[in-house]
Amino acid sequence: MAGIYIHIPFCKQACHYCDFHFSTSVKYKNEIIQAIQSEVELRKDYLSGASISSIYFGGGTPSLLSAKEINRIIDQVYLIHPVENDIEITLEANPDDLTKGKISELRTTPVNRFSIGIQSFFEEDLKWMNRAHNAQEAESSIKRAQDAGFNNITCDLIYGYPLLSEAKWTNNINKMIEFEVPHLSAYSMTVEPQTALGAFIRKGKQQPMNEGQSADQFILLMQKMQENGYEQYEISNFARDKNYSQHNTSYWKGIPYIGIGPSAHSFNGVERQWNVANNMKYLESISTDQVPAEKELLSLSDQFNEYIMTSLRTKWGVDYAYLEKRFPSDFLTEINEPLQSYIARGKVQKSEKHYILTDEGKLIADQIAADLFIT
Ligand code: SF4
């Protein structure tokens, strides 16, 4: 079992908060698709023959690709790798791309899940973020996808930014519940220094994010999703009726994945690899049959820390039996004291042999994980 991530490095315009790799020029789109197909072949042995259970088109904006271009990439994956029958194929899509015509075109592909970047249903918020879509498209894209029979939909929302009052945040969450989307991902706005938002804050044109507001809105999110039958199966991810993201769940469970395309990351259990985040360098290198990537061999403590960081964020928590089986006993001795302290303070709870964050613990998940890291 393994996953494939395909990075499509193009966007119509740059959202002010975004630090992902993309180009706003699609001049080399065809060349990049060709190079992605080549990279799938060049790296055919990376997953040691494991069958593919998920393909995830991320970016950038994969919905800028035509159905034909998406099919070219998927066909190549099917040609090179064994693929599971119930494979999940997700396409990240921006609301302005999901026109009626585009959605029916996408019905001709094996894509069976949309991840729609809604972010907000408010016009002024979308403008503030410099999103390419408007509030009306935010709503109509979900409805159109559902009407066309795409029921496996996840939507993204952002909270914790100055324009977002409690009333607006409540409205955004309620809309998702009304649309009965089976899956929601919600992220607190983070400010990366090299983004437009980072520059606005440095120049005093924009007030910084407020941690207290973010925490309050996260608490509201957890309450409302729970009240409406959604399970918080990962800190930022909510699903109804166990509509978990197969792809992301694989990440969190440490299942190997290969990342194809500029800036894409890969992981095979013991090694991380990341491709160059530059479209031209990527094209040049792939044209000489070289994958332009850096690698890092993960030490045992890196693997331990990685497991703690990802598993702690999920509803399944840290599996103590797995830690005992996989890592030296002194690692477990080292984390015992901080772990017991967090349990005593009600931030972590023990269920049989699993350690799981409480709602209070979810507010400081990164800090708890860092305190459990082996140095
Ligand atoms: S559409 Fe997505 S990838 Fe593109 S700039 Fe906006 S947030 Fe970044």
UniProtKB/TrEMBL annotation:
* Localization (cell): Cytoplasm
Sorted keywords for this record are: 4Fe-4S, Chaperone, Cytoplasm, Heme, Iron, Iron-sulfur, Metal-binding, S-adenosyl-L-methionine
Main location as per UniProt: cytoplasm
Q: Which residues form the Radical SAM core domain?
A: 1-231
Q: What SUPFAM superfamilies does this protein map onto?
A: Radical SAM enzymes (SSF102114)
One short Pfam name that applies is Radical_SAM
Q: Which Gene3D superfamilies match?
A: tm_1862 like domain (3.80.30.20)
Q: Specify the superkingdom.
A: Bacteria
Function in brief: Probably acts as a heme chaperone, transferring heme to an unknown acceptor. Binds one molecule of heme per monomer, possibly covalently. Binds 1 [4Fe-4S] cluster. The cluster is coordinated with 3 cysteines and an exchangeable S-adenosyl-L-methionine.
Family label: Belongs to the anaerobic coproporphyrinogen-III oxidase family. HemW subfamily.
Q: What's the protein name?
A: Heme chaperone HemW
